[in-house]
């Protein structure tokens, strides 16, 4: 900094003000300082600045796996929103979702110097009495039923699922079968509960639930089972990837979509419109989930009033060509 000050003919304090973006420096002086920085190859010491300010401009993200569309898209949205606010993201995947692993993850993030933490929980963890997050840490939780203990941002899982089932019933289907996600998944259980509730309130029978593991391969396996159910004319798949496998199984078994069986998914992945046929699905606004997560931790960092509880991000139905009225009896 002293070298830059000498070359630019200014004080070290002026160099500091320019490097930190403070106002009160004339444009001519700013240009002189920036030119001197470039000539000398000067870069501000971010670690020293962080210690001085008491913040590191970094948000930690703990996630329990990156295999699902929801986790990956949420992480992408968090990183984009954080960058827009001038923050970096430090990612810490946790292979085994246990209390000890959670404690270890927070400890490691503390060593890596982060200002706040966003936890992406795709599995039932905060529902359990045995699992808790460290107190006095700025935390926002995504995709979890954490109640009023934390600040939570989640997609409206139930609302989106009920909209999907209602769409199929409104087309004239007597009932709707469900291809659910894994039992340990919070999102999968929310969607399955909403499926049951919508059918019950409509006075329709609830068929046996069939499970997959979010993958297209599991959707294919479940689809072979569903294809044998001749009374099955409509299926709500808990995600688009399982719906893809389901479409393949129905095709191989001679069940036409949507002439014989209507299929609806959840997520609205980028490829959903290119399925054969293009998939009717529930759109999740991952960008808004990520933005609200970042906004939540920034409010805590700025000591603004924040209330614990859940903010739900609305979904919307995207109707394409995989759903139609049932075949005539």
Q: Can you give a write-up of this model?
A:
By secondary structure, the chain is of the alpha/beta class. It has three domains: 43 residues, 434 Repressor (Amino-terminal Domain) (Orthogonal Bundle), CATH 1.10.260; 128 residues, Response regulator (Rossmann fold), CATH 3.40.50; 128 residues, Response regulator (Rossmann fold, 3-Layer(aba) Sandwich), CATH 3.40.50.2300. The chain contains eleven helices and twelve strands. The strands form two sheets. The chain has a six-stranded parallel β-sheet with strand order 2-1-3-4-5-11, sandwiched between helices. Helix 10 links the parallel strand 8 and strand 9. Helix 7 packs across helix 8. The N and C termini lie far apart (82 Å). The relative contact order is 0.12.
